[in-house]
Specification:
- This protein is α/β, with parallel strands linked by helices.
- The chain has one domain: 3-Layer(aba) Sandwich (Rossmann fold), CATH 3.40.50.
- The protein is built from 5 helices and 7 strands; from the N terminus they run E-E-H-E-E-H-E-H-E-H-E-H.
- A 7-stranded mixed β-sheet has the order 1-3-4-2-5-6-7, with helices on both faces.
- Helix 4 links the parallel strand 6 and strand 7.
- The protein is globular.
């Protein structure tokens, strides 16, 4: 897929104000310091589209971007560490859960994980919730330019082992990426393209594809 345009549309906390669910949509989420904004900018080849910051937890809204006039990319607030109060974090969690479980055109959630560190409980817990709710997702390991080739396979194996211990018998698809080297850009876009082609606009009250 060639990225011809990438534009910001709207930020909000009111899901009723999200764009009409008439295009395929993909959500990006991860812990607050995982490099989400940098990865989004790399993916769509638009420096500065998603705002990067040295302060974790700056994304506090549901941010919609439209790519190639054809599909929506959504930047969600990070989970875990954020320099906000407990009540605000709880509000983020409710907003994220409501978005993930009700957005009719959401085809896949990209869960971003720092590829440099061992599996973390907070990531595994979030992955488990997605699995329990039947929400399609993939794992996207970030910052992999800092790993040697053996480390790239090792992080995937460690997550598979951790998920096996938690009772998983099938694993989500995994991608290795780097905003610095642009690794993984083609693979992610190649993953999205056939989903876009198969998308059908959901009818009012229609169940999402995985709820059929």
């Amino acid at each position: 897929m060639q990225i011809k345009s990438a534009e910001f549309l709207i930020s909000n906390t009111d899901l009723d104000k999200c764009p009409k669910p008439d295009k395929p949509e993909y959500a990006f989420i991860g812990r607050s310091n995982v490099g989400k904004s940098s990865l989004i900018n790399m993916l769509v080849s638009r420096h500065g589209l998603a705002k990067t910051s040295q302060t974790p937890g700056k994304t506090q809204l549901v941010n919609h971007f439209i790519i190639n006039k054809e599909w929506y990319l959504v930047d969600l607030p990070g989970y875990g560490f954020a320099q906000v109060g407990k009540a605000t974090r709880a509000g983020f969690a409710r907003m994220i859960d409501a978005y993930l479980t009700t957005r009719a055109n959401l085809l896949c959630t990209f869960v971003l994980i720092d590829g440099r560190i061992a599996p973390q409980k907070i990531d595994l817990d979030f992955i488990t919730r997605l699995g329990e709710q039947g929400i399609p997702f993939v794992l996207v390991f970030t910052k992999t330019e800092k790993l040697k080739s053996g480390g790239l396979q090792n992080i995937q194996d460690r997550y598979k082992a951790a998920l096996t211990e938690m009772g998983w018998d099938e694993f989500p698809q995994m991608f290795l990426t780097s905003a610095t080297s642009r690794a993984g850009q083609k693979e992610l876009l190649d993953f999205i393209e056939p989903l876009n082609k198969a998308f059908e606009i959901p009818q009012m009250g229609e169940k999402r594809p995985w709820q059929q």
